[in-house]
Structures are given as structure tokens and as C-alpha cells.
Amino acid sequence: MEFRVLGPVEAVGVGETLPLGGPKPRTLLAALLLDMNTAVTADRLCEMLWAGSPPASAHANVRSYAAGLRRVLNAASGGDRLSHGRQGYRLRAQPDELDLRLFDDLAARGRAAMAEGDHWSAAERLRAALGLWRGAAFDGVPHHSALHVEVSRLEESRIAVFEDHAAARIALGEYEELVPELRAQTAVHPLRERLWGLLITAQYQCGRAGDALHSYARARRTLRDELGLDPGTELRRLHQAVLARDLSLVTGPPPRSSPIRQLDPPAQDPAHPGAGPRSAGAWPICQLPTLIADFVGREKLLGRAAALLAPSNARRPPTVVPVVILTGLPGVGKTAAATHLAHRLRGTFPDGQLYVQLDTARGPRRTSAAVLADLLLSIGVPGSAIPAAESQRAALFRSKLADRRVLVVLDDVMDTSQVQYLLPGGGGCAVLITSRARLAAIPGAHLLDVEPLDDTDGRTLLDRIAGTRRFATEPEATEHLLVGCAGLPLALRVAGARLAGSPHRPVRWLAERLADEQRRLGELRAGDLAMRACVATAYHGLAPDAARVFRALGLIPTGEFPSWIPAVIMSGVAGDEEPDDSVDDILDALIHANLIRAHHVDPEGRPRYRIHDLLRAYAAERAAEEESPARRREIVGRVLDGWLHRVPAARERLLRTGADAATAWLEYERPALAATVEYAARSGHGEQASELVAALDDICHQCSWLDDWERMAQAVLERASAEGDRRRIAMAQGSLARAGVGRGRAHEAMRWFVSAIEQLDALGERRQAAYLRVHSSFAIADRGMTEDAYTDASAAVAVLSELGDLRGTVLALRSLGAVLFQQRREAEAARVLERALDAAERLRQPLALADALQALAVTEIMIGRYPAAARHLDRALIHYRGVRHRPGEAYAHYTIGRLRLARAPERADEAFGPLTQAAEMFSELGERRGEALTAFMLGRAYAALGDRERARGSFGAALAGFRALRMPDWETRTRHELGTSGG
Fold it and tell me: Which pTM value belongs to this model?
């Protein structure tokens, strides 16, 4: 678990950012992190959340926010992260889990290294500390007094660490790279004399004395204008040193010296033994490729790799040669990162940097013996002195590098056999490898993944290639372009090169071309740069079965997938069986080739995988080229059958037990399910898509997946309409109607309900028509259409009871009871709802039981059975929380507030806690009906306390809501209340 406050407040679980909720829960988390592992009182939290002016419901709200945080944090970490006791709320975390503590620790360690003269270690630690920042500290969280003090401290510490980092880099000779960074910081912090001094030093050291003098003049003018002061002693002394060109005054302390190494003794030329010693060789030597001028990002990766390669690494015996392997997707920039890192480490390996390109795509595979011959020649060994045997060449190579400080870079290694003879033997050397494969068999090697660039670095790369102004004028098209390139530097470089070469073309032109997945790889080509060719090299190295699965992954609509999908593709069996060894071997082969990634583990403990978007586009190309249309259709059908086996089972677990595991699994699979339904409908699998939406209806309702629900149902409706399938049309219309009710769009939903019910009646689909009558009855009962609602509910009770559908009968009885309640027939409503509760107890489905309990409680409030209503609401709330049904939980809070107001109007303030909590939850859910009802009840509470102004405000908000929702009965009641309160 990671907690991040150096930027937007975040909590990160297993590779993903956790959903913390709105500003208030984030502020609560920030407050607890300031005093982590220490109890913080509720009063203190209220003060921090509401800046000293907490509302009457503050304590109740804190409990709600804390409960939400506890659920999220505990689920992600598997432990009790947030607890509540007598002394208050306590958040448990380790120091290395909070980026703020890591920053302070790295800063302290970096300064300690500076004090010891170890500038390289200082630079790496301070660079890592600065890399933790993602924006302003505690960004997005209101700054109360305590937080404001901490933010100010952190901002001051951040710029001080930047200054120390710059000083360490100057000591290492990184002058040129530092100048633009220091100029940017002096623009932001123009009164910090140390920053000006560092800038002047860096400018002078890279031969820009004129710029250094100009910077001093700017610093002096700024200090005089802003403070009325001249520069301090150190800055004036530096100015004089520049004028005098006195290097001793401006040169920073030298890097810590390397251990003294014993050079090879002068050698006799074997062809001329009496001619005296020959040259000691080519030392120092640098064979590295030229640095890429527009290289961006990778600071954290390069810092970690540099630390692992450093010969002085204390965690490693002094005689062990460190080996770091940079691996990653095709086109992710492994070679560029290795080249940049190797150049950065030239001071660490002063004897030389050897570079070998082993890419077989550029020619036949070279033997280790041939590579060793080239290496030996490059370090000064005459050709006549190179042994014939591979093992002898390797031994000579090791002996020549013994007691030297040399970095060996092996680029584009295919497998470990290419490497074993190329490793030096001395502890002063190191080896940096890049590989498309995940080389795990090299003893002691550290495998580091090179990840795609984030949008910020991707945009920076595009700016450097094609110009900043080009993208600044088309921000939306630029975002689409970044999506199309998916963070791969090769793709970004190609896109930037194409735009740079076509200055008359807008960014939108290329972004629109990349939006088409079928032509995307073809567009990502410019000169010798081609994304397709880069991926093809990895693909053509696969065994037939692995290639077959890779192609099939191009036919599923999402990049992330569970392990059962490859198993279904291979076997065609849609059951719950775990993938067998052969499927695991195929997945391992694809991981080894970096064509997929083991992403994380799902809530059921099963692995999940991810294929990059551009690799999936290539897989789709290969499937279209190498698989027949019938085979492609069969693959998609198998995957859909797999979902149709799993989703109904998860729905039953969810409805019957409210199992956390079922909820967690469904939430995990939610994006994939939505994308799969839409893809299936578009690609001609309408029947399976329709079945999947039908299986998801109750899940979408319970989990409030309203956006996805509407999108899936619309896709299925369009396919069914195109195929003229009346039953599927009616089912999709029913789904759209239910989703519309959840959105508060009852008028629109009614059109769908009427059309769907008519068609199902005509087709003889009694059960489905009865269920839709139930949902329709709920939607129209409180909108003035009680007679129609009564007819629908009564008919549904009769049909579902006759069919022996217990769950449907509970639902129908609830709807009938709600209609009777709206008709002011409370006694009848209570009897019907007691029947519903009895049936729900027998059904043993938590959500159905909670809904029955709450419906009965509402009626009991109206007839004065307050103790019974309170008991029923307590039980309902427990069940709603157990199945994580937030709309039901919100309505339970609303009804509790209503109960408190009815039972004791003179203590109306006791209703504010649950009503405020309900209002916040309804707002988050977008549940407009609930918002309007809660506003109405808050108006009554304010009126009971004599606060007419607030009462009118709440009633006014309620009236606007009821008008928009077309709820005439509630409009009338609200107008009456407004008249009573003087509105």
C-alpha cells in the first residue's frame, strides 16, 4: 500500500489507485496521514474538515467518511488500516508507505552523502526524492491551519532539495543539462540567492561566461527591486570570480574519486620482441551510441538502475559484477534508456563503456566468439593475440577488464546463451542489458521493466520533435494522439516525425487516423521508424500455440483479461476449470516475449494479464490475415460463452448472499463486461450480447452501474433492431427503462416500459412482462399515476405467484405496497408489505430483504409504529451495507431521518445527521429523486426548528427537483409546505 500526498492525495493498492471518494474523504485521509499511527479525535477532524465551522451533522459525516475509507483501505491491504476507538481515529501505516516520509528520508540520506563527498550517491538519492513529487503537496485538499503549515514546510524543503541536487550534479560535471532547469527555478523563486549562484556556476562551467554575467545582473536587479538589497557575499564573490575567469572559485568540489586501479603493464609487441613496450591499449574507450537529444522521463527507472550498477553498492560483495536488465514491450524505449543511463554513468566507469548490438533482426545471429573478437580488438588486443577458442577469448576478455572500471552494454539480447561469455569478472565492472525477453536465468541479475511514458512525458516528447505551439493550439486532438500512441516512445517518435514533416497538416489529421485501430499500425511509420516491424520481430519468434493465442487476444475488446480467456480460446470449454499446464506455458511464453504482462491478481486470487493497445492492434491484424472468418467468429463466441457461464453465477451469489467476493469480482470485471457486450453487439453476436445484458440487469441495478447499463442496452437494442428480433428488442428496451428510472428520467423510461411490455405480452413472455410491470409500477407510483401502477403491480403479483417465482413475488408485493401507500391506504399497504417481508425472509436474499424492511418501515412511520420502524431500518441498513448497495443505504439514511422527525419534531436537529448523509450519497450517485425527497425532509426539519429561511431554501430545492422529475403529488405537498413556512 502506498499513500501519496506530494501531489493529489492518493492511496495506491496493488498497482492501482484506490477510489477514495470526493474532497471530504480525501481531506480526512490527509488529516489522518499527518498524524499516522496516532489517534486523532473526531472534534479535531471536524475542525480540519470544515475549517472550524462544522455543521450539526459533522460527527455523523466523519463516521460515514471514515467507514468508506476503512472499506477501501482494508479491502486493498487485507488488514485493519483504519480503526476507531475511544481516543479517536487511527490510520496505521509504515513510514516507507507514505511518500512524504520517503521524501524526508531520501533528502537526509542525500545530504549525508554530500557531507561525505559522495556526490554521485547524493545526486541519485536527491533525484529520487524529487521524483516523488507529482504536483503541489496535498493538491485538491482544502488547506486548514495545520495542513497549511505542513504544505509550507514541504514546499520550502522541496526547493532546498532541488538546490542540493543541483549542487551535487555540478560536482559531477552535469552543467549543460542543469542550465534550463535552474533558469526555470529562478523564474519561480527569484529571491533565492543560492539558486542564482548555482545557475551562474553551471553557465560558466559550460563555457557561457556571458550568460553567467547576465544572470548575475538579473539577480541583482530583482533583489534590489523586490527587497531593496544588494546580493549577498557569496553571490558577489561568484560574480568577481566569473569576471576574473578564476576557475578555482567557481568549480564545485570534485566527485568522490574511484578506487585506484592497477593498469595493464606495458606489453611487448609479440611480432617485435626487442622493440620495447607497445601502447597500454585504447583506455579509456567509449563505444556508446550518440545521446538522443529529445529523451524524456525515466528518472525513477534510471536512478534505480544506476544505484544497482554502482560498484560501491554495499548490498553486494565487492567481487560480484552487477548486472541490470532493462526489459519491456517492443518500442518502449529500452535502448534509448540504456544509452542515456550509460552516458550518465561515464564518470562512474572512467575506464570505458563498451557497446554491443546483438539484434538478429538486423542480420544473422552473431556467435559469442565473434562478439568477443570485436571487443578484444576494441580494447587494444592485436588480432594475432586473440585465441581461437571461445572460452579462451572469454577468459582473456575477463583478464583485460580485471581491476578496471568498465561498463559493458549488451543491447537487444535474445536469450541468455548470448550473454554468458560476455560478462566481465572484476567487481569494478558492470553489465547493462536490454532485451525484449524477460531474461530470468542470469545469476544475480536485476530485471527492471521499462514502462510506457505517461501523458506528461509523452506530450513533452511530441513537443520536442514537432514543436510546442503545434500541440498547444489543438489540445483535444493532442490528447487523442497520445491515446493512439499509448505511451510507446517509438510510436510517439513516429507521430512527431510525421507531423514535423507535414507542417501544413493539423494534429487532428493524424489523431483521427490513429483512432482507427485497423489502420493504426500502418500510420505509425516514418522513414526507417515503424511500429509494426518492431512488434513483428517478437511475434515471429513465438511457438505456433503461443502465436495462436496472441492472435486471438486481438479479437477481444479490452487490453486486460483473466486467465480463463486463453484457456477457453484453446479448449472451447466455458466452465470454471483452471487453465492447465499447457495454457500456463503459453502465457509464460508470451510474458517472456514481453507481448503480454502479468498485471495483477483478482479478488478470487487468479492472475490477470494485460496486452498493450498497439500490440493488440498488431494481434488483430495477424488474426485477420491468418485466421478464417469462421475461426475468428468461433473465438469470440467462446469468450462470450465463458462470460455467460460466469456472470449468472456471480449474480446469484450477489443476490443470495451479498458476498464481498462476488461484488469485488464484478467490479473488477466491469470495464471488460461493458466493452465485451458492445463489441459483441457490433460484431454480429447479438444473441449472446442480449443474454449477457439480461444477466447483468440486476447486477447493474444493485451496483449502480447506470452509465454502463445504458450503453450496453443501447448497443444490444441497435443490433436486435437491425436483425428484427422482437424479443431481444423488448428485453433491451426493458433494460433501458430500468436504467432510466435509476437516472431519474421516469418519463423517458415509461415509453420504454410500455413498448417492451406490449411486445412481451404479444410474444407470450409472461414472466419477463410481469417483472417489467413491477419495475414500471415502482417508477410511476409517486408520479401521480397510481391507478396504472396499481394495475401493473396487482397483475405482476398474480403472474409471479402463479409461476412460483418467489423473488419476483417479493418484488411485486413491494411494488403493490408502495402503490397503496401513495394512495393513502396505509393499513392495506402495511399488510401487503408484511407479506413481502415474510416472503423475503424465506427467499434469503439480502437486498430483497433490505428493500422489504425499508418499505415496511416507511409505512409504519405513517401509522405511528415507530419502534417497529426503527428495528426494521436498523436491519435494512446492515443488509444494504453488506451487499454494498449504496442507493439502498442512502434511502435507509433518508428514512431514518424521516423517522426521527416524525417521532420527536421538537428534537428535529437529530434528523440532520442521517438526512445530510443521505443527501451527500444521493449527490454522489446522481440519484435525483432521492435528492429531492431529502431536500423536502430537510425543509421540514428546519421548519420544526423555526429556521424559516433554511426551510424555504430546502423546500425550493425540493420543488425544483420534483418538477424536473414530474412528480405532481410531491410538488403539491412541497408548495403547501412553502406556503406554511412563508415562502
Answer: 0.59
